[in-house]
Amino acid sequence: MRKFWLSMTGGVAVLGFILGLSTARADEATPQPTPAEKAPGSLSERVGQLEKKLASYEESSDQKFKQVQEDQLRLHFNLYGDAEYRVFGPAANFPLEDGFYLGQTDLHIMAQYGAHLSAMSEDVVEFDGQEPSIDLERIVVFYTFSDQLRLGAGRDHTAFGYWNRTYHHGSQFQTTIDRPFFLAFEDGGGSDLPFKKSGVVPNHIVGAFASGKFDLGSSSLGYELNVGNNGNIGLSVDPGTGAPVESSFNFDPEGDDFHSKRMAGRLVFKPDAGGGLALGLASVLSHYRVSADNAPADPSLAFSKLVQLLLEGEVIYTDENFELLSEFYNFDDNLGDGDAVGSANNTAFYVQIGYQVTPDLKPYFRVENLNVDANDAFFKAMLYSNETVYLVGLRYDIVPVVSSLKLEAHFINANGANATEVATAWGFGF
Question: What average pLDDT score do residues 116-138 get?
Fold first, then answer.
């Protein structure tokens, strides 16, 4: 019996030694927590640990949100401008004036967020005498529902005419140096130089817009609608003689003085949706008043309300080589409903033809005409009478689309007086 217990005691001791040795080795193989990894003992330590986790989560979420924003948002910047040299003078005294000029320097920004929301801004630097000025020409936000409906609001070019809706302040993309004279931008002011004078149409509008296009089999029909502020005619008057010396449309970004708003609409039909022929019709109903810095000698120039219906038609054809642009206007200033009326038969038109004879060289020709009633209150306030311009020119593309040289001769007959202008411009668009 004694031997039995001795044997049992020895076996247990051996077994205990083996188990102890195994446990020690297992403890050595298992990583032990460091003091930093041990659970915090105090409440403040546990709160600190949770705050660190929350900050890490917020940073990760913010990075994911920024990545989504970057994937959705697109910004595009363009810079347009030109440098010009012009020689001008009446037929009996040419050249009377010559000099170098800076054209409009245009910063154009486009933004797109996702498939529906977009915006556009266009700021132009130009000179009025010695002083440069920065004009906000266009600022619009759009929401596109479909090809058939896009809504917008802000300041844009009014819905009339191929030229006004196609060519903006970057003249690099139009064939010629200048717009047709009666379509010149409103803030041109008065000058003996034709290219410095304001036009007679409301190129811009502040308000709300709608546009879209419908497919009609192989044809298409596009539309544009505007509702916005009317304009006023800013008239500078010589305080001594009372004679008007300068006139232009004023920018009305903060409302106008009329209960009725300016209304504009345009339709463009393309017989072949993918072809170069387009036929358009447009109308603009506007209310005008004169804002004079001094009392004019002619009291008819100081009107507070004139209603005008502008009607426009266009025939356009463009392809890789040939360009035919033509627009026809009628200004009806005899609608009444104001303290000033004019004629219903004031007209204007231009026809421009160009042909790309080589990939770099394009000659062109244009005739422009304005025929108005001399007693029409609107055109008297705008300092315009009958005028015809014949233009011949040559465009050489230094780098296609990006930069060009243009050389033109303008033969001008303004109310019976003849003048000539020779102009050249080096334009760019990036």
Answer: 86
CATH number for the domain that contains residue 195: 2.40.160.10
* Alpha carbons 97 and 268: distance in angstroms, whole number: 42
Q: pLDDT tens digits, residue range 301-346? A: 889 999 999 999 999 999 999 999 999 999 999 998 889 999 999 9
Range of the domain at 103: 82-429
Lowest mean pLDDT among 124-128, 379-383, 426-430: 124-128
pLDDT at 136 over 50: yes
Q: How far is CA 81 from CA 58, 84, 99, 404, in A?
A: 46, 10, 17, 11
- Mean pLDDT score across all residues of the chain: 86
- Within 8 A by CB and 6+ apart from 299, the residues are none
Structure tokens given for 173: 């993309």
Domain-embedded: residue 114: yes
Q: Looking at residue 192, what is its pLDDT?
A: 52
What is the three-state SS of the chain?
A: CHHHHHHHHHHHHHHHHHHHHHHHHHHHHCCCCCCCCCCCCCHHHHHHHHHHHHHHHHHHHHHHHHHHHHHHEEEEEEEEEEEEEEEEEECCCCCCEEEEEECCEEEEEEEEECCCEEEEEEEEEEEECCEEEEEEEEEEEEEEEECCEEEEEEEEECCCCHHHHHCCCCHHHCCCCCCCHHHCCHHHCCCCCHHHCCCCCCCEEEEEEEEEEEEECCEEEEEEEEEECCEEEEEEECCCCCCEEEEEEECCCCCCCCCCCEEEEEEEEECCCCCCEEEEEEEEEEEEEEEECCCCCCHHHCCCCEEEEEEEEEEEEECCCEEEEEEEEEEECCCCCCCCCCCCCEEEEEEEEEECCCCCEEEEEEEEEEECCCCCHHHHHCCCCCEEEEEEEEEEEEECCCEEEEEEEEEEEECCEEEEEEEEEEEEEC
Nearest to 406 by CA among 80, 85, 78: 85
Q: For residue 50, is it within any domain?
A: no
Query: Both tokens of residue 56?
Result: 């890490």
What band does 231 get if pLDDT is binned at 50, 70 and 90? Answer: confident
Tell me, yes or no, whether 54 lies in a domain.
no
In-domain check, residue 224:
yes
Look at residue 148 in the predicted model and tell me its pLDDT.
97
Q: What confidence score (pLDDT) does residue 202 get?
A: 92
How many CB atoms are closer than 10 A to CB 301?
21
Q: How many domains does the chain have?
A: 1
